[in-house]
Every structure is written in structure tokens, then in C-alpha cells.
Write a sequence for this structure.
């Protein structure tokens, strides 16, 4: 039993890291794509009005003014506050924002619990009467946990209600969409129930400590074990679905929407483009007649009769 | 009340999936708030319906012949699936594989993009015009028919769809009910791009089945590659026409205008959309007047393709896109110019400056830029004397999507208008948030069957509303001259048709034109009345 209690959450965590890693590598290793940016591009100097370096004469001969801080600011606003949704779909934002912010808060809560467990292993007393760090690691997870659970439960309930009742969403809502939201609701419901029996999350932390040490007798109660198991199962499941957008969004924004890197002679991009132009083509339309041997260079340069 | 259309309905054969009536359309402000001023729809003829697959909506663009047998239908469906497979292969679709996969795999189907789409809004929110509708059809087919275990997992995660001839034919046609303006993508909180998916669908049909519109392919890009220009002008004809324009322009402006041709080693190779030369000669004439007055080293090229910057491949086909940009760049390399500068053509900007940036390598990668910053520097640089009072009439600015939202050239044209048009006012919204003119993705050159009705009533409707909004406090009598500045050939074609269709030029004094014309109209050394002289 103890072995299962340790292996299951650890396997889920490992699975989470593995799936995220595989998906990141898969996306990042796709070939260079043609430029398809969309303005405003947050790292551009003229991002305030949506401008680009193309607003200058002889832009290639001038130093590029790029602000990574601007990009980070925009990305953080988008991730933490869901700015685009706020501006373009306020009704959905009222559900989606608490849901996502709740998840972020719960992620922070999980991190704090983990730190607390590590601190305990190091001999630090994570208690109400401990030192400064011990007190921080004892008290901070309490509001983070309850706030995160409350926001995520409220948000997930709102999202599920919208999915089932909004006529514009109904036909686009699949069985998996409903299942996913129910997974969140049930999991967070169980975590909340466990938290109500352990409002300082001491048992949660102690379980994590015993998990890190593989001690023979795991700390905690059956409800706490169930809560941890379900939470880690959910964590492993998320990156296998379209909810992977929590990290793939970095690619959709950074690698497509904001990718205005010019192809300057001798650049890394030029080398990638040269390689891609040598890929074989097998499109069958009469104006291409790709036979699997012809390359993109051949297609682009052949004479038209 | 009609039953709402569902995604799976695309596969269910019927005479017409939706039928739009005038009453469905988004209302327009005065003076078009009277329903009687809305022209009636022309119906497709029975002959057309028998000949072509036309069961999507009120109109038809692709002219797909009806299959003669079920065997032929099955073969076409099979070919479609083969093409879909290629769309997701590294070798066949390296140009857009990463953006496509990201959009296919992560859309939350939250419909946030819908309100950003002028076609969906103007049509009275027709379900099939929702940006997610066609993407969802493609997504469901992809996950059900191409992914392992798709029969179950596709349905579980993406919903039901049947793939049959009706689905394929309607999806092809539906990919041409989007202007590719990508305003929907701008609204997406995840960064998914339904505009891209619409183009990828067009591409699949073009590159695998050879289905494209005649206007874009046979009479467009292919004609350009064979003759030199999609207008049909060969090098001799274009030179004759420009010579004639020079003569007219000299007479109208009082300047001596002589367009330089094939000047080796010139600083600038100027590329116009050749449609300007035939339909709006005042625009290339204006460029010649400005460039000469500013003392620039510039030239046009009489090399085939180099005198026509159009690249319709941007709208439907990567192979055609690449064929044209390579020839454009090769002509510039041959002349030994320092840079290529594009005239007022939005998609030429996007093709050569942005997309082709990752097609051209080595000595074909010649610097390329828009003429708008150059015009801004000339106007503000003091090299030419201006009299802005000559432009003392209401002016509003249309932002071509390809130049603004998709390329980030927002301010130069505004700086010019603020300097030279004292009564300039913005549309709402504007800049990168602009709405497409409705002629985007090549629609402006399509009027076959009754497509003009669709293009005016639906895709152009939001722009019409914006134009009327910009002039709402102005004298709307025919003699009160008002000007919509549209620095893009395709957009101008749409403006011309829109203003005529709704009687806004003759009836209410709303005119349209480019930016360079407005600059020349304000040049102090030019005979007054440049804008009106060409109309005469």
C-alpha cells in the first residue's frame, strides 16, 4: 500500500514532466516556418501603436530596437490576467480568469508545500512557532490553498455551466470538454474536503515529506492520500489534452505571432530556410506534379509553359 | 426560427446549407438605414447549380464540377484525404506546419474569435461563417480519419463528423468565405489562427486537387508567370501604357514626368501592382511625380513579372507564392538595384517583405521595403513644397490588413495625412484593429455568378459601416467631396465596387483613392486639381 501511495504520485509527476518535455521538443523541432506574424508584436519598439521595424526606410541597415521586457510584460499580462479574453470575451473571462488564476495559485500552493517538506527534511521546524522561514512555509500555503481551491472551483463550475448552456458553445463542446471540467471539479472537491479535515495542510506536507524519504509508514489520512493522488493524476492528464495550451501558448505567441526575426544574409534562419527548400515535394496538382524527388527549389524555379 | 446549423451538418446533403436574406444582414447607418436601399440578391441559376457544386450558401466561387458518379466522388474524397495527410507532413508543408499544428491542437473552441470577424457579424451571425466552424470541420476530419484510434478518440475529443463528397465540396467553398484578415487570430487568448487554417484548406485543395478560383490561378498567377502580369500586359504593352500615363500626368500636373525603365544600378526598383496601371493610372503617375520631384534614383523594370508586384499565391498556394517571389527578386538582382520598393498594394507588401523573407536566400535576398515610410520621409523632409489647403475636404483612412495588422506599418501613412489632409479623421476601429475592406484574400477580383452580391452585402458591409461612420457629421450631398484613402490596389477595387453598389459616390459624394494621389494633390508646384483631373 505504502509503495503504491509513493509510486502513484511520483509516476504522475514524472509523466507530467515527460509529456510536457516530449511536446515541447516536438513543437520546437518542427521546421522553420514562413513568417506569419500579427501586430502588435510585443517586443517591437513601436508596439504601442502596433508598429514594426518596417516603418523605417532602409530598416535592414538600422539597429533593431527590441524590448524583451515589453514582451515579458505582455506575456505575463496574458498568462496571469488573460488580457485577450478580458478585451474580447468578458463574459467568458468572468469564469476563465478565476479558474486559471486559481490554478496558478494552487501551483504556488503545491510549490510551497514541497518547499515545506524539503525544509522539514533539512531539520527546519515548519510550524506556527518555528523560525521566520518555518512560519512562512507554514502559514503561506493556507491562504494560497483555500483561495486557489475556491477560485478554481468557482471558475470550473462557471465554465461547465457555460459549456452546457451557451448556444454558441454547445455544438462545439465535446464529451472530453465536459469530462475535463468534471475532473477538475471532482479533484478539487476532494482536495477541499481533505483540506477541511487538515486546514493547516500539515498532513499534506507530512505526506510529501514521507514521500521524499520513502518512509515505511506514510503520514496523513486516507482522504489526504486520495487528494494527492487525484491532484497528481490530473496534473499528468492535462498536458495530454488541448489544455496543454498552458505551455504551448509560448509557441503560438512567441514563435508565430511575434516571430518577426528577419532573414539576414548568413543568419541562422537563412541556413534553416536553405535546408527546408531541399525537402522533397509530393503535392499532386498539375501545377506542382510533385513526385517525391522534386524539391521545393525545383518547384519554385521550374519554367511555366 | 431556423434550426441552428451544426458542424456535422456540413456532411448532410441538401440544396443549400444556409440561405441568407437581406433581413438577416447587420443594419447600416444613414444614409443606408432604409431597407429599400439594400439591393436584392441575385440567385444562382439552375443551370449553374446543375453544373457546379453549389450547396453551401447563396453564392459560388470555386466552380467545382459535380462528379458524374459515386466512384468519382469516392476518388475525390480519397484525394482530399491524401492532401490532408500532406498538409501535416514536414516535407510538404514546412512553410506552415508549426503554426498549423499549434492552431489545430490547442483551440479551446471558446468562440472569442467570432465577434472579431466582420463576415460573421455582418452576415447576421451565420453559424457557418464563424471563424471556428470551418476549422472545426477540418479538425474533426483530421482527428477522426488520420489520427490513430480516431474513430473513438476523434469523436470523444473533437466531436462527430462524416467525410463524404458533400463535406469536401462545401469545405472547399467555405474556405473562400474568409478574407484571411486574421482579425480573429488577434482576439484569440491562446494564439490560435483560424485565418491560417482557412488558407491551409485553400492550399490543400489547390496543391493536391488543383481546385482554385480561375481569377486567382489560371487568369491570375499562371497568366502572370506566362505573360508577365496577371493583367495580361506583356513588357511592350506595359511600357506603352506607362508612356501614355506619363504624357497624361505631365499635362495634368504641369511637371515633366518621364518614368525611368530598366536603369541598371538604380537605388530603387519600384514595383506597382499592374492593376494600378490599367485601372488607377493616377497612382503610378503620382509616384513618378513624387519620386522625380524628390530627386530619387529609381526605375521600373520591363522584365516579365517585375512590373507587376501581385502575388496571388499568398491567398491560396505556397508553390505559386514561391514561383512569383523568386522571379521578382531575380529581376531586381539582374538590374543590380539596391532595394525593391512596393507601391500601394497590400498583398505585395505581405508577400515580398514578410512571407518571402523566408523563401529568398543568398543573392536573391535583396532588401525590400514599403513605399509608405519613404513617402513619409519625403513629405516631412522638406524636399517638396506642399499646400495642404488643397486637400481641405473630409478624408478618412482605410488600413489594408496586409500592410497594417500583418506587417506593422501603421504610422507613416498617418503622419502624411496629418501633415497634408487638414480634415483627416480615423475610422473606428483603426490601425491594427481595423476591419478588412471585404475584398481581402483576392475577393476584390471575384465577381462571377452572384459573388459580387455576397462581397458587397457581407464581406464589405463592416467597412461600409465604418466609412459612413467616419463621415457621419459631414454634408452627404453629392457635391460635397469626401475621400476614402485606401493605399492598396485590392482594397481600392473593393471600395470602387462598394461605393458604386450602394450609390455612395453619385448619391453622397464619397470618393476613394490612394495615398500618393493625395500627396500630389497637395504639391505646391503641381497644377491644382490632380484628384479631379484624372476623373475627367
Amino acid at each position: 500500500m505504502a509503495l503504491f501511495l509513493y509510486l502513484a504520485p511520483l509516476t504522475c509527476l514524472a509523466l507530467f514532466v515527460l509529456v510536457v518535455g516530449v511536446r515541447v521538443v516536438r513543437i520546437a523541432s518542427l521546421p522553420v516556418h514562413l513568417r506569419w506574424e500579427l501586430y502588435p508584436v510585443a517586443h517591437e519598439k513601436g508596439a504601442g501603436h502596433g508598429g514594426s521595424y518596417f516603418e523605417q526606410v532602409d530598416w535592414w541597415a538600422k539597429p533593431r530596437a527590441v524590448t524583451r521586457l515589453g514582451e515579458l510584460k505582455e506575456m505575463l499580462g496574458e498568462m496571469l490576467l488573460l488580457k485577450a479574453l478580458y478585451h474580447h470575451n468578458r463574459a467568458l473571462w468572468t469564469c476563465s480568469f478565476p479558474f486559471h488564476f486559481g490554478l496558478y495559485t494552487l501551483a504556488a500552493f503545491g510549490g510551497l508545500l514541497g518547499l515545506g517538506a524539503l525544509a522539514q527534511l533539512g531539520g527546519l521546524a515548519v510550524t506556527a512557532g518555528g523560525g521566520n522561514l518555518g512560519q512562512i512555509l507554514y502559514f503561506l500555503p493556507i491562504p494560497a490553498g483555500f483561495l486557489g481551491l475556491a477560485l478554481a472551483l468557482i471558475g470550473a463550475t462557471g465554465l461547465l455551466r457555460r459549456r452546457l448552456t451557451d448556444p454558441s458553445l454547445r455544438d462545439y463542446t465535446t464529451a472530453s470538454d465536459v469530462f475535463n471540467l468534471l475532473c477538475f471539479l471532482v479533484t478539487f472537491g476532494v482536495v477541499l474536503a481533505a483540506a477541511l479535515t487538515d486546514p493547516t495542510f500539515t498532513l499534506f506536507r507530512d505526506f510529501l515529506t514521507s514521500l521524499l524519504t520513502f518512509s515505511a509508514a506514510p503520514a496523513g489520512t486516507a482522504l489526504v492520500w486520495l487528494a494527492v493522488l487525484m491532484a497528481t493524476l490530473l496534473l499528468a492528464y492535462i498536458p495530454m489534452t488541448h489544455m496543454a495550451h498552458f505551455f504551448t501558448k509560448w509557441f503560438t505567441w512567441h514563435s508565430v505571432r511575434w516571430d518577426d526575426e528577419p532573414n539576414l544574409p548568413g543568419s541562422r534562419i537563412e541556413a534553416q530556410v536553405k535546408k527546408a527548400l531541399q525537402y522533397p515535394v509530393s503535392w499532386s496538382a498539375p501545377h506542382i506534379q510533385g513526385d517525391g524527388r522534386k524539391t521545393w527549389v525545383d518547384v519554385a524555379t521550374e519554367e511555366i509553359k | 426560427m431556423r434550426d441552428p446549423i451544426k458542424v456535422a451538418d456540413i456532411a448532410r446533403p441538401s440544396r443549400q446549407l444556409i440561405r441568407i436574406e437581406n433581413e438577416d444582414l447587420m443594419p447600416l447607418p444613414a444614409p443606408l438605414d432604409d431597407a429599400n436601399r439594400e439591393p436584392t440578391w441575385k440567385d444562382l441559376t439552375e443551370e449553374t447549380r446543375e453544373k457546379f457544386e453549389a450547396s453551401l450558401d447563396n453564392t459560388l466561387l470555386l466552380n467545382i464540377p459535380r462528379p458524374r458518379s459515386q466512384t468519382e466522388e469516392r476518388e475525390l474524397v480519397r484525394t482530399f484525404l491524401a492532401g490532408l495527410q500532406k498538409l501535416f507532413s514536414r516535407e510538404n508543408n514546412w512553410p506552415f506546419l508549426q503554426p498549423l499544428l499549434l492552431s489545430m491542437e490547442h483551440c479551446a473552441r471558446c468562440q472569442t474569435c467570432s465577434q472579431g470577424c466582420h463576415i460573421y457579424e455582418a452576415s447576421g451571425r451565420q453559424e457557418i461563417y464563424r471563424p471556428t466552424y470551418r476549422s472545426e470541420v477540418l479538425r474533426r476530419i483530421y482527428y477522426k480519419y488520420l489520427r490513430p484510434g480516431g474513430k473513438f478518440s476523434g469523436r470523444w475529443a473533437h466531436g462527430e463528423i462524416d467525410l463524404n463528397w458533400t463535406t469536401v465540396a462545401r469545405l472547399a467553398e467555405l474556405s473562400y468565405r474568409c478574407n484571411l484578415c486574421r482579425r480573429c487570430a488577434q482576439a484569440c487568448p491562446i494564439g490560435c489562427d483560424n485565418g491560417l487554417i482557412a488558407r491551409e484548406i485553400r492550399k490543400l485543395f489547390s496543391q493536391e486537387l488543383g481546385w482554385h478560383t480561375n481569377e486567382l490561378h489560371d487568369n491570375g498567377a499562371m497568366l502572370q508567370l506566362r505573360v508577365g502580369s496577371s493583367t495580361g500586359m506583356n513588357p511592350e504593352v506595359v511600357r506603352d501604357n506607362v508612356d501614355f500615363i506619363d504624357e497624361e500626368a505631365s499635362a495634368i500636373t504641369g511637371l515633366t514626368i518621364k518614368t525611368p525603365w530598366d536603369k541598371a544600378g538604380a537605388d530603387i526598383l519600384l514595383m506597382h501592382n499592374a492593376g494600378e496601371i490599367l485601372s488607377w493610372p493616377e497612382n503610378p503617375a503620382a509616384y513618378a511625380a513624387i519620386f522625380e520631384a524628390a530627386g530619387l534614383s529609381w526605375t521600373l523594370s520591363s522584365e516579365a513579372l517585375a512590373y507587376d508586384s501581385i502575388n496571388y499565391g499568398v491567398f491560396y498556394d505556397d508553390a505559386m507564392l514561391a514561383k512569383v517571389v523568386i522571379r521578382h527578386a531575380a529581376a531586381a538582382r539582374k538590374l543590380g538595384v539596391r532595394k525593391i520598393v512596393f507601391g500601394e498594394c497590400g498583398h505585395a507588401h505581405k508577400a515580398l517583405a514578410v512571407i518571402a523573407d523566408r523563401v529568398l536566400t543568398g543573392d536573391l535576398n535583396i532588401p525590400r521595403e514599403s513605399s509608405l515610410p519613404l513617402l513619409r520621409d519625403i513629405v516631412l523632409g522638406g524636399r517638396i513644397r506642399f499646400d495642404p489647403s488643397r486637400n481641405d475636404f473630409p478624408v478618412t483612412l482605410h488600413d489594408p490588413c496586409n500592410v497594417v495588422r500583418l506587417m506593422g506599418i501603421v504610422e507613416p501613412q498617418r503622419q502624411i495625412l496629418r501633415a497634408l489632409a487638414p480634415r483627416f479623421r480615423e475610422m473606428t476601429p483603426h490601425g491594427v484593429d481595423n476591419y478588412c475592406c471585404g475584398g481581402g484574400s483576392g475577393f476584390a477580383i471575384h465577381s462571377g455568378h452572384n459573388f459580387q452580391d455576397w462581397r458587397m452585402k457581407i464581406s464589405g458591409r463592416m467597412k461600409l459601416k465604418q466609412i459612413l461612420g467616419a463621415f457621419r457629421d459631414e454634408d452627404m450631398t453629392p457635391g460635397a467631396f469626401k475621400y476614402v484613402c485606401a493605399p492598396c490596389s485590392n482594397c481600392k477595387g473593393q471600395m470602387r465596387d462598394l461605393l458604386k453598389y450602394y450609390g455612395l459616390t453619385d448619391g453622397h459624394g464619397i470618393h476613394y483613392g490612394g495615398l500618393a494621389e493625395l500627396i500630389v494633390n497637395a504639391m505646391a508646384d503641381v497644377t491644382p486639381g490632380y484628384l479631379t483631373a484624372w476623373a475627367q
